[in-house]
Design a protein that fits this description.
With 83 residues, this protein is mainly α. Helix content is 59%, strand content 11%. It has a single domain (3-69), classed as Arc Repressor Mutant, subunit A (Orthogonal Bundle), CATH 1.10.10.
Length: 83
């Protein structure tokens, strides 16, 4: 099952450690992203939590943006011919 599907099927809020594990980063990185408003989150008495569907939508958006900013692969022979 893909990460986005897992998130969409999840009903309860996610904790920082869970999001960090899913994304393969440290909890400190997730706290920093949340503080800077880079990942959707909410607070419960000071604890940072994540709505699974919001995180899934955020991942989709990030994937979409990264696919638009990616440069097409270049052929090394073409590079040599241009110089």
């Amino acid at each position: 099952m893909k990460l986005i599907e897992i998130l969409e099927n999840r009903k309860e809020a996610l904790k920082v450690a869970e999001v960090a594990k899913m994304l393969g980063v440290t909890p400190q990185h997730i706290y920093k992203m949340a503080k800077e408003g880079l990942i959707p989150c909410f607070h419960v008495k000071g604890a940072v939590r994540f709505c699974p569907s919001d995180v899934a939508a955020w991942i989709r958006k990030e994937i979409e943006q990264s696919s638009h900013t990616r440069k097409p692969p270049t052929n090394s022979q073409d590079i040599g011919a241009r110089t």
